[in-house]
Each structure stands twice: as C-alpha cells, then as structure tokens.
Design a protein that fits this description.
Shape: elongated
Number of helices: 15
Distance between the termini: 117 Å
Helix content: 40-55%
Radius of gyration: 33 Å
Largest sheet: 8 strands, mixed
Strand content: 15-25%
C-alpha cells in the first residue's frame, strides 16, 4: 500500500512538472538589444553579438531599445546592413531619440515604434566639431537613407480598375532628414532638415505605433501575449574591443607603430621602441581580426612591408624600390584591415568605407612623422627627454682634445652603425657615426673627424 501511494505521488509530481514545462515551452522568446549611447564600434559589437545570440535561441522577434543622438556613420552603416539581412525580424522602440545615425538604424528595422514625445531624423553628416560636411558626404548619406527606406518595398492599392503603388516608407522623407533642400508639401520647406515627432511619424508612415514601454510594444503591437524577454548583456571585452576600434585611437596606434620603428632604427639593439611598436600593432590588429575585418593575408601584407623596409635599411642603404614597396604594403595592410571585405572580394565595400579607412591610416602616419620630428628636436633639451642625449657645452669639454687625437686612427665597430652606434679604438669605447652607409659589427673602421663628442668614421677597406 505504501509503495502504491509513493508511486502515485511520484507520478503526480512528474505530471505537474511536465505540464509546467509544456506551458513554459509555449512562451515565445523576444530578444532585446539595448542601444542607449552614441553609435560607434561598441554599439556595433552589441548588435552583432546580440543578433548572433538571438539566432541561437531561435527567438520570435528581436527588439532594439534605442535612445541615441547619433554617432559614427560607418558603424551605423554596418548596423543597418546587419538589420536588413537578419533572418529574424528586427523591430525598434525609440525611447526619446533616434537622431542622425540612429534614424538610419531605425529605418532599417521592420517596424518602428516610438514613445510619445520621441523624435526621429536630423541625419545630416557633420564633422567632429559639429560643422556640416561637404556635399559628397551628404550625397552618400542621402543615397543610403533612400535605399534603406526603399528596401521595405511598396504597398499595392487597388481601387476599382486602378492599381497604384505606395512606398511603405517614402524615400523622399528619408532624404529630407539629410538634405535641407528637399521640399515635401505640407511637411517640410526648403532650408530645413526634417525631424519627425512621434505623431508626425505615424501620419507619414515612419512609425507603426506609439507605446509607453517595451512590454506595450510586444503585447499590443507584436501581438505576443505569452513571452519570455531575453536581453543582451554586454561584457567588458565588448567595451574594450569597441574602444580599440575607435578611429582616433587606431590613429594613435599607427603613430606608435611608425614612431617605434623609426626610433628603433636610430639606436643599436632591440629596445623600448620595438616593444612599443609591437604592442601597438597587436592592439591594432587583434580586435579587427576577432571581428572578422582583418584577414590573414592583410596582416601578412603589413608584416611583408615591414620586412621590405628593414631590408632596405640594413641591406641596401638608401631608399629605393624596396623601401617604396614596403611603405605601400604597410599602408595597404593597415587600410584594408579596417575594411569589411571578404578575402579578396570587395563587392560590398563602398568607396566611402575605403576612403574613411585610408584617412584614418594617413592621419596616424601624419601624427607619427610629426611626433618623430618633435621628439627629435626635444631630446636632450629639457623635461623628461633631457637624459636621452648629451647636452654638455662642448666648447669647454675636456674630451675634445682626446677625440681630436683619434682622427686618422683605425678601430672596430662594436655595434652595428646605422648610422650611429659604438666603436672601439685603442681598446676604448666611443660614440661613433658612420659617414659611408651602414657598417656591420666587427668591421674595421677609420676615424675621419670628430664633432659633438662623437667620432665620424668610415669603413676601412683592406689595401
């Protein structure tokens, strides 16, 4: 009897658990991605990883909870492309602001919902200081806004024997958010950039409903009554990756790479400049490689450029075809690592994206060369650089007579002279500078003059 009661009790528990499991499995999963900050590479990572996680969970719908004043155009372009081609429908709930890049992202979504009092628009391209960019940038943004709105297609309206087609989202309205020359009767006059309120957006087809919360959108507009809400939770690595992919920081890393290589070539041995350049290169390529932007061949191209430059410096002094080829490889490798191409296929890469990437690289190179010139002038004067060079007044230095006695003597290169380094003369070490190209360690040298506490030497050939 006890065994039977125990059996019945166990069966009842299993039955109740199975009912609860079936009920839970009936719930639809809605996946929410919060984008409530400036549009940049960090938010791009949020969206990319959020979409990937949503596909793994086989969710019913993806809802972007958006509140932004805009941000980087290239990041917004990548985000809108990811939304347009997502296999799961992506909706957006504008919680107050969808300005500039935020408007582009919103228009890419299947449906737009807005909080009462929210706004969307003002997508004119501006620079870092807020000034309006030249028309070539506006033209690209106008085209992108039109194409994004057109991607949602047209409604077919049949009235008797007449059939007309109406855009679901009028491309001209999207263009008016960029170009203040666009005129739309009863909506916007020339000389004004378009921004729509929630009520206006509903009237003109750029909002599918006004809601006060995410739950309101899901239940009343998506008609999902029983659902489980999952939210993407960014990690510290996402934020770090986004920071490393910031264009200005990438320019700083390029500056360190170039500066480190330059100063390493001016000093014998391997030291801090090489370490700094290596760390900067790793920080530059690592996030791009992880995110799938930098391919193996692009990194190899960059390294090949460095090898060619080193070959030009150490093997064939001067600057000829090898050095030029190496410089081109370095610039191309750094630039293409920023471009979203697939191996050697550049079909989906716009000229704007290539131009923007090249601008980042050239900006970094300019900073690097400018810093080299500045540091070269500062070394040995004052401040933190004062111990890096000899600044003693040589007119009264006691070493001058000693160095003058060395003129005409022969010795050996104690280190590689490229062109500066150390030489040994009569068993003593001196600072030496080669006047006949680079001299390898151990090569016989001859002193031809002295200047600034250094002896100037040339390679001594056997007679």
């Amino acid at each position: 009897m006890k065994i039977r009661i125990k059996y019945l009790f166990t069966s009842l528990i299993i039955f109740l658990l199975s009912i609860n499991y079936i009920h839970a499995s009936d719930k639809h999963i809605v996946y929410k991605i919060d984008i409530k900050k400036e549009i940049n590479h960090t938010t791009q990572i949020y969206l990319k990883k959020g979409l990937e996680e949503a596909q793994k969970l086989n969710v019913e719908a993806i809802l972007i909870h958006l509140n932004t004043y805009g941000g980087l155009l290239e990041a917004a372009d990548s985000m809108r492309t990811a939304i347009l081609y997502a296999p799961i429908p992506v909706y957006v709930y504008i919680d107050n602001n969808a300005a500039s890049a935020g408007a582009l992202i919103s228009i890419a979504c299947k449906k737009i919902f807005m909080r009462k009092g929210a706004s969307i628009g003002a997508a004119t391209v501006v620079g870092q200081t807020g000034e309006q960019m030249p028309d070539k940038y506006q033209s690209y943004m106008r085209s992108m806004m039109r194409a994004t709105s057109e991607s949602h297609g047209q409604d077919t309206i049949i009235n008797g024997s007449d059939t007309t087609y109406k855009w679901i989202r009028d491309p001209q309205i999207a263009e008016a958010m960029v170009d203040d020359r666009t005129v739309i009767p009863n909506l916007i006059d020339s000389g004004k950039t378009l921004t729509l309120t929630a009520e206006e957006a509903v009237k003109w087809g750029y909002c599918d409903g006004i809601a006060e919360s995410v739950g309101d959108v899901i239940e009343n507009y998506l008609n999902i009554k029983e659902y489980k809400l999952e939210t993407y939770k960014p990690t510290w690595l996402d934020n770090l990756m986004g920071f490393l992919m910031n264009p200005f920081f990438q320019s700083i890393l390029i500056m360190i790479i170039i500066g480190g290589i330059y100063f390493e070539l001016q000093t014998p041995g391997i030291g801090f400049p090489s370490v700094a350049a290596l760390i900067a290169a790793i920080l530059y390529f690592s996030p791009l490689y992880i995110e799938g932007l930098a391919a193996n061949w692009e990194i190899v191209l960059f390294l090949t450029g460095l090898i060619l430059i080193a070959f030009e410096v150490f093997v064939i002094p001067g600057f000829g075809i090898t050095g030029i080829s190496g410089t081109i490889c370095v610039i191309v490798g750094l630039t293409l690592a920023l471009v979203n191409n697939i191996n050697f296929n550049f079909e989906g890469v716009s000229g704007f994206e290539i131009g923007r990437s090249l601008l980042v690289v050239l900006f970094g190179l300019t900073l690097g060369f400018g810093s080299m010139l500045w540091l070269s002038n500062k070394i040995g004067n004052k401040g933190i650089m004062r111990n890096m060079a000899l600044v003693t007044d040589l007119e009264n230095a006691t070493s001058s007579p000693v160095l003058s006695n060395l003129v005409g003597k022969t010795g050996t290169a104690a280190t590689v002279l490229r062109p500066s380094g150390k030489v040994i003369i009569d068993g003593k070490y001196y600072d030496g500078v080669s006047v006949s190209g680079f001299i390898e360690k151990g090569i016989k040298i001859k002193v031809i003059r002295f200047e600034n506490a250094q002896v100037y030497v040339e390679e001594k050939f056997s007679s």
